[in-house]
Every structure is written in structure tokens, then in C-alpha cells.
Amino acid sequence: MTRSKTGPVLTASDYQHLARELVDADVWDFIEGGAESERTLRANVSAFDRLRLRPRVMTDVSTVDTAVSLFGAGHRTPIGVGPTAYHRLVNPEGEVATARGASAVGALFVVSVFASRSLEDIAAASDGRLWLHLYWFRRREVMTGLIRRAEDAGYTALVLTVDAPRIGRRWRDMRNGFAIGGDVAAVNIDAAVMALTHHSDVGHSAIADHAAQSFDAAVTWADLAWLRSQTRLPIVLKGILTAEDAALAVEHGADGVVVSNHGGRQLDGAVASLEALPEVVDAVAGAIPVLFDGGVRRGTDALVALALGARMVLLGRPPLWGLAAGGADGVEGLLRTTTDELAHAMALAGRPRLADLDRSVLRARPGGEL
Ligand SMILES: Cc1cc2nc3c(=O)[nH]c(=O)nc-3n(C[C@H](O)[C@H](O)[C@H](O)COP(=O)(O)O)c2cc1C
Ligand SMILES: O=C(O)C(=O)c1ccccc1
After folding, report:
1. Residue limits of the FMN hydroxy acid dehydrogenase domain (predicted)?
2. How is domain 3-53+66-350+357-362 classified at the CATH fold level?
3. What pLDDT is attached to residue 26?
4. Average pLDDT for residues 350-365, to the nearest whole number?
5. Confidence band of 1 (pLDDT split at 50, 70, 90)
6. Average model confidence (pLDDT) for the chain?
7. How far does the chain reach from its first CA to its final CA, in angstroms?
8. 33 Cα: distance to centroid of ligand 1 (angstroms)
9. Quick one: what percent of the chain has pLDDT higher than 70?
10. What is the DSSP annotation of 125-175?
């Protein structure tokens, strides 16, 4: 167990407090911050307060099973690491350490296209549960190049983020004139495509300026056929919040969706991720797996999302806290703790298998709705 000056590190919040002491203030703002007034960021976390659990008893919970399979591959936990950019901002080993930590617990790691270590080095440090995340770049050869490399290195699915035709107005980053500096870089993308990301300018986020230049904001559902034609890997669309878009995702051949508002970093005022989950699950009606991210901080949060129909839950900020606090061991500890909390909650709720988790686990608090 990791220890800090103030005692054992037991919870995601413990890792968060440790990380805060170790990370530069502008990097901390980049990680923790959301768009504009951060309403959606707060809503993602507080949405979990509105639900209560309905435990069943005497159901033989002597063994609890958290294993799940997705696109033919097994994972020991339904809690994975979502795509977040530039892990070397908080640890010199960056995504290589994250991959080692995730592998130690048999968890999925979705590698950001803005990773600060090479796709191949990350794959070498992993036991194989890797997906690659992509943004839609104007220069499509950047995408096809990355897809080929990911296939060759053994990545098993693609996650296309669809909620960021431009980057949200993140006031903290704009005030800080946040730019990616030092020797941290998006090493998997041609340096010429990345130039603006290193240009600091108060009042601007360099990340937003770079995205305005390099992301293709003209993409529509019809373009998905092009991506489909480039690879046999499953394609998962990340950033779906409505029944309408969930139905379109199925119609256009997506292999999965992630219900997400990008951790409150894109459209401020967008629905809390948890609030959107039931309508997306209903619209998809079992056709493809639905994954979830946003505001998951404890095993009971994961339990709630799984009970609402998510097949897997991704964590954005918490693995970065683990990585900053303790490198690969910190990522491992964070994921192990959260998975242990989930198994514990499943036992106490009387549902020892993931298949037992359905809406009967939940009720709204009096005066609320599911
Ligand atoms: C520092 C940081 C970087 C991120 N980078 C990406 C990214 O490159 N691509 C992406 O699709 N989402 C990115 N996200 C969003 C996460 O994948 C995820 O949707 C969100 O963080 C989930 O919410 P949570 O932090 O409450 O768990 C990033 C989030 C953070 C905090
Ligand atoms: O996606 C994000 O939230 C994000 O922070 C980011 C990082 C690098 C490039 C583009 C977006």
C-alpha cells in the first residue's frame, strides 16, 4: 500500500490530494479544469448523489466476479483508463508507466492520440489491453498513419472522440496562457502538425489554438464510412449524450459508444454524463456496447453506471492523480482500489456478478428521478 506523510493512501481523493502537491499549478488547472463556469464538471460528480442503492440479501456473495469481455478480449475489471493527453506532464515515464499500472490489474487503457510516449513503447509496456483514441484531423493521412501503427503494435480498437470539433473555452487554461512546454510533446504526430501547441499566449489556450488549426470541424455522420474503410478494428464513438445520436451511431456502423461530456471540458451546461446514460442505453437497445465516463470517483459510482447499462466505465482524471502521486504503482493502486470498492459494493448489494447489475439496484432519492 502506498503511504503518504499523513497516512495510508486509501481512496481516489487521497491520490488527488497527493498529486496536487506535486504538480505545477498550470498543469493542475489543465487537468482539473472544465469549460467556462465548470457547471457540467460539477454536475458530473453531483449526479451520483441523486441515486440510492437497493441492496438484496442472502444471495451467496462468497465470490464476486468483475471480469468483462469486450470485442472478444477479456478485462479483469470493468473500470478502465480513458484517453487523456500528455501523461509526461505529471510523470517522466508518462504513458509507459500508465500502461504498466493498468496491465497489473488487467484493465483497459485507451491511449490518447496526444500521448507523450510512442504508441510502440506503450504497447511494449502493456499486456495488450490497449485501444487508440483519435481526433478527426484535417489531414487524414495523419489518421491513417496512426491507425496503421496502432494495428501493427497490437491495439485492438479505435475510439473516435466526436464532442470536440473545437476545444471548450477553459477559462483556467486561457488565463494561464497554458501551453505544452519543456520536453513534453505529442510524439506520435508530425511535429509540423503540432507546432502551435507549444506557443504560450496569455488569454489563449495553446491547445485550443492548435485544435482550431488541425481538427476537422466539418465532419458529419456520412464521413464515418471513410474511417470504416480504413481499418478492421472496432470503432467506438466517444462523446454521445442523446438518444438521437446513439441511434445514428448504430445506424452508421459504430461498434460502440462512450456516453461522455468530456469530463465537463467541452460544452458547459451539457447534461451530466450520468443523466444521459439511461436514454443512450435505451436507444441503443443492446445493439452495441455502451461505455461511460464522467465523475466516477469510487466503486459505488462505477456500480451505478454499470447498473444503468454501461458495459465498462472509464476514468479520466483519477489515473492522472495516481500517476502523479506514484507512477505506475500509483496508477495500479488507484485502479485496484476502485475495483476493490466495486467488488465490495457488489457483495453488499447482493449482486456478485456484473450480469446481476440492472436498474433494480437503483432508486432515485425521494423527489428525484432516475
Ligand atoms: C487532462 C485531460 C486530458 C484529456 N485528454 C483527452 C483526449 O486527448 N481525448 C479525449 O477524447 N478526451 C480527453 N479527456 C477527457 C477524458 O477522456 C474523459 O472524457 C473525462 O476526463 C472523464 O471524466 P472524469 O475526469 O470525471 O473521469 C481529457 C481529460 C483530461 C482531464
Ligand atoms: O481533450 C481534452 O480534453 C484535452 O485536454 C486536449 C488535449 C490535447 C489536445 C486536444 C485536447
Report:
1. 4-367
2. TIM Barrel (3.20.20)
3. 98
4. 96
5. low
6. 96
7. 37
8. 10
9. 98
10. TSSS-EEEEE--BSSHHHHHHHHHHHHHHT---EEEE-S-SS----HHHHH
pLDDT in tens, 107-140: 999 999 999 999 999 999 999 999 999 999 999 9
Give the number of the atom of ligand 1 that is nearest the alpha carbon of residue 161: 11
Q: How many residues does the chain have?
A: 370
Residue 65 CA to its chain's centroid (Å): 23
Ligand 1 binding pocket mutation candidate from 84, 88, 293, 298 (most atoms within 8 A of CB) = 84
Domain regions of the chain by residue span: 3-53+66-350+357-362
Which one, of 200, 288, 198, 273, lies nearest residue 240 by Cα?
Answer: 273
pLDDT digits over 40-66, tens only?
999 999 999 999 999 999 999 999 999
CA of 49 to the centre of ligand 1 (A): 22
Across the strands, what pairs with 290? 257
Helix (H, G, I), strand (E, B) or coil at 293: strand
Question: Which has the closest alpha carbon to 112: 172, 33, 184, 18?
Answer: 184
Q: How far is the CA of 207 from the centre of ligand 2 (A)?
A: 7
- Contact in structure between 106 and 77 (CB atoms under 8 Å): yes
Cβ-Cβ contacts under 8 Å for 313 (sequence gap 6 or more): 78, 79, 80, 291, 292, 293, 296, 301, 302, 305, 306
Cell 452508421 belongs to 252
Q: Judge if the beta carbon of residue 260 lies within 6 A of ligand 1.
A: yes
Q: What is the ipTM of this complex?
A: 0.99
**pLDDT for the residue numbered 370:** 67
* d(C-alpha 365, C-alpha 370), whole Å: 9
Task: Say if pTM beats, i.e. exceeds, 0.95.
Answer: yes
Cβ burial, residue 203 (10 Å; 0-12/13-18/19+): exposed
Mutation pick for ligand 2 pocket among 90, 114, 178, 267 (CB with most ligand atoms within 8 Å): 114
Longest dimension (CA), the chain: 62
Q: Which ligand is nearest to the CA of 163?
A: 1
The grid cell for 337 is: 482500489
Catalytic residue list contains 262: yes
Closest-approaching ligand to the CA atom of 259 = 1
CA 1 to ligand 2 centroid distance, Å? 32
